Amino acid sequence: MTNEFNFDVKHEDYKEWLNQIEQVSDADCSLLSEPDPYTKCVRSPEIQKSAAAKMDANGNIHAGNISAYWIPQITLQREIGGTVYTVTGYYEGKTDFLRKLERMTVDRMRRAMEDDIDDK
After folding, report:
1. Residue 74 CA to chain centroid, in angstroms?
2. What is the pTM of this model?
């Protein structure tokens, strides 16, 4: 197999090749007008139900909790007094993530302390 190109092709051969191509009439072509810059994309009902973010009648985007998509799952480890505490979960809610994590940690520590007192 060679990568050579035949430069000896004659002008008549090109004309014959071009004549073999099916000619397209102007009636077969449809003219496209300029698109409307204010056209809005309309989703089908099936797509709207599956979308995580919804659009209202004014075109505003409403999402239940965008940060849940940014931090889908998190695992934190912290050593306190020689014990390693691990918190695993995902974030849902309107409060600050660190405030929620502090509340969860305090609740778990309080329950652990109450269980230790009950065992004695």
Report:
1. 19
2. 0.24
